[in-house]
Amino acid sequence: MYLHPEAASAGAPSRDVLLVSAIITVSLSVTIVLCGICQWCQRKLGKRYKTSLETVGTPDSSRGRSEKKTIKLPAGGKAANTAPVPGQPPHDESDHKTEPRSSVSDLVNSLTSEMLMLSPGSEDDEGHDGVSRENLGRIQFSVGYNFQESTLTVKIMKAQELPAKDFSGTSDPFVKIYLLPDKKHKLETKVKRKNLNPHWNETFLFEGFPYEKVVQRVLYLQVLDYDRFSRNDPIGEVSIPLNKVDLTQMQTFWKDLKPCSDGSGSRGELLLSLCYNPSANSIVVNIIKARNLKAMDIGGTSDPYVKVWLMYKDKRVEKKKTVVMKRCLNPVFNESFAFDIPTERLRETTIVITVMDKDRLSRNDVIGKIYLSWKSGPGEVKHWKDMIARPRQAVAQWHQLKA
Q1: Lowest-confidence segment of 18-22, 184-188, 200-204, 376-380 by average pLDDT
Q2: Which residues touch 316 (CB under 8 Å, ≥6 apart)?
Q3: Long-range contacts formed by 378-384: CB under 8 A, 24+ apart
Q4: Where are the alpha helices (DSSP H) in 1-160?
Q5: What is the CA angle 355-257-270, rounded to 5?
Q6: Tell me: the pLDDT tens digits for 203-224?
Q7: Nearest CA-CA partner of 232 in 399, 65, 56
Q8: Is pLDDT of 128 > 50?
Q9: Position 228 confidence tier, pLDDT thresholds 50, 70, 90
Q10: What does the CA dihedral 331, 337, 342, 347 come to, rounded to 10 degrees?
Q11: Does 1 or 358 have the greater pLDDT score?
Q12: Strand pairing of 199-207 and 191-192?
């Protein structure tokens, strides 16, 4: 019996159709498997990637500062700064950290870089959440009371993992000591130059201080970054009510530093993007918008604008700025600025973003700053590295403004 070729083809699929179907099925299966592997790598490896700061300088380096050896306290006593305890060797060795540079870290950077382009206010916004949990370091100190001599002793020992406040990726920390509610009289440690893990080992005596008044005080320690040419930048603070401390003997504490209560932790946020073009040797900084800016004017508002400085080896190279937004705490700028940066200079380059309040009759006020480089805070370093990992693409991130 003879069948016409067209009738035969209508009854069963041809060999070419079956082959194409098989190829499509195999391709889809491989794609699904690869996506699963990428998601698994992202979950497993992404949690392990951490950015660390490089510590620079010698622990015992210090700048000369005038210190008050004795002050008259409201309680009728006096305070003095004494030398380190004899026989106790100063621990001047600081732990140096290096940034991870393995290929696994680069892989995680590229896998997780998509998460940066998030909408403002998202719970997964790492530029926002990362800053709210930012590590400000910790401080070690001891406190005790001598009943025979009516003397309160406070010893500032050391600090660890302080954040970098200077362009060079380090800080010049020192400590102010108060007995609240008295903030007029204070004592200070020496400045430890270019050190994120400083050792002070300085002892302060509050002599002639009755015990019944000591337990009414709060020991307040404020760690600051010394700046010769401008206002000192607050790093963090610790407070401890003395009525909750057993003062019969020297008690030693390790306390995590908290954002300073003078308003430095609530200056608002700025959304900006970075776009690196290696072939053109340029970085484009797009100032997008800000939210919840600190009010600097009497009327409860501000007139914000943004300055962008390009720094190379701690030297100012180029400055650009946005327009002024009148009476606005949530301004939208959407202004872009291009900077020429050769690839070999990237590691020594810092982009400083400063949000200012315009004042017609007096000096403009600083609302807050952001330092973007290889050696800034964890959120800033992540933004910088993701910019490098995604050339020719704008990478946006929210940043908390700092004092």
Answers
A1: 18-22
A2: 309, 310
A3: 378/50, 378/51, 378/130, 378/134, 378/135, 379/126, 379/127, 379/130, 379/131, 379/134, 381/51, 381/53, 381/99, 382/51, 382/126, 382/130, 383/116, 383/127, 383/274, 384/274
A4: 5-11, 15-46, 103-112, 126-132
A5: 20
A6: 999 888 899 989 999 999 999 9
A7: 65
A8: no
A9: confident
A10: -10
A11: 358
A12: unpaired
Phi, psi at 208, each rounded to 5°: 65, 35
What is the C-alpha to C-alpha distance for residues 264 and 42, in angstroms, rounded to an integer?
35
Q: How far apart are CA 84 and CA 202, in angstroms?
A: 5
Give the pLDDT score at 87: 41
- Beta pairing partners, 399: 270
Structure token digits, residue 209: 């201080």
Angle CA(253)–CA(172)–CA(70) in degrees, nearest 5? 65
Q: Could you tell me the strand order of the sheet in which 138-146 lies?
A: 70-72, 78-82, 199-207, 151-160, 138-146, 251-256
* 64 phi and psi angles, rounded to 5 deg: -70, 130
Within 238-376, residue ranges assigned H as helices are: none
pLDDT digit string (tens) for 3-26?
454 444 444 556 776 777 778 877
Model confidence, pTM: 0.43
Q: Rounded to a whole number, what is the distance in angstroms from the first to the last CA of the chain?
A: 94
